[in-house]
Specification:
Blueprint (H helix, E strand, L loop, with lengths): L5 E2 H11 L11 H10 L5 H4 L2 H6 L2 E4 L4 E2 L1 E5 L4 H10 L5 E4 L4 E3 L10 E3 L3 H9 L3 E4 L2 H5 L5 H8 L3 E9 L2 E12 L1 H12 L5 E4 L5 E10 L3 H9 L4 E6 L7 H14 L5 E4 L2 H10 L1 H10 L2 E4 L8
Parallel strand pairs: 4-5, 4-15, 5-8, 12-13, 13-14
Antiparallel strand pairs: 1-3, 2-8, 6-7, 9-10, 10-12, 11-14
Helix pairs in contact: 5-6, 8-12
GO molecular function: metal ion binding
Keywords: Metal-binding
Protein name: GTP cyclohydrolase 1 type 2 homolog
Length: 308
Amino acid sequence: MENKAIKLTEVVDALDNFFKIHELPKDPAMSRFVPMVYKKSTIPWTKIFETSFLKRFNGLMVKGFDNVRTVFTASFPHDEILEKFISQSNEGDLLFLHHPISLECGNPKGKLGAGFLPINAKLLQAIQKKKLSIYSCHAPLDYNKNISTNRAIVEALQATVESEFLPYGNGYAGLVAQIQAISTEDLIAKLKQIFQIPYVDFAGKFFKKITKVGIVAGGGDEIEYSQTCRKRGAQAYITGEIFSHYDSDWGKQNTTRLQEYANRVDMSMVGVSHAASEFLVMKTQIPKWFRKKFQLRSVPLSQNNWWV
């Protein structure tokens, strides 16, 4: 049985309204990083990406055929993700992304990351040729009060939100939540299972009883973030990155600062990888939204290796 087709404009309008895309003039992060990476490339990105996206750096990014039958979801547009999207999709299908550009964050047990990178030019051409669409939702997906990168983690932990922190865009990108008492060892095991990762990046101290956690999906490699959580009574801090494993002067310097801080902090700091921490919402909450709103089928596209 063929999937029901929904007009792309209808899907885009619904996403824009739900995430209040037009209420955020510019994405605080992507309005800087997208132009930065494409200035170093030969890709005519200002001609390929939609005018409205170039203004806000959120929303419909690449417009394809106006009938959507399947929505694919992912954290970053890495080559392996786009290759899966292109091979598994049909004309008009949509890729819903968190990041509009790739991000290599490094591996705590391997090589350092290259940072932000433009979308592969050949794959971008293939997407256009097949008349596929791409929609990116960055900051609004971090601070939405119903569906967000952070609230998906809260949901998976069966936790209860106590407070918000970290002002970001038109909301907050950090949450403090109460959880059922758990040890650091058991929390790590649970997070490995939730995010389907082989190992975590860990620093700080081990606790026998954790009842409150701080959560920042994505890049949580700032001392201030975990300090805020600790001041609010959290014994553990869960994020994508607890260190800055980037092959840059800033990355190395910030990691040194964070390691010095981690040696004295009275807290369990757990990194689950930037991409995995932001993929959970793409695997759980976002597909439910598309199914409830449009009865559209969703296909979450996971990375083979989250620590890239």
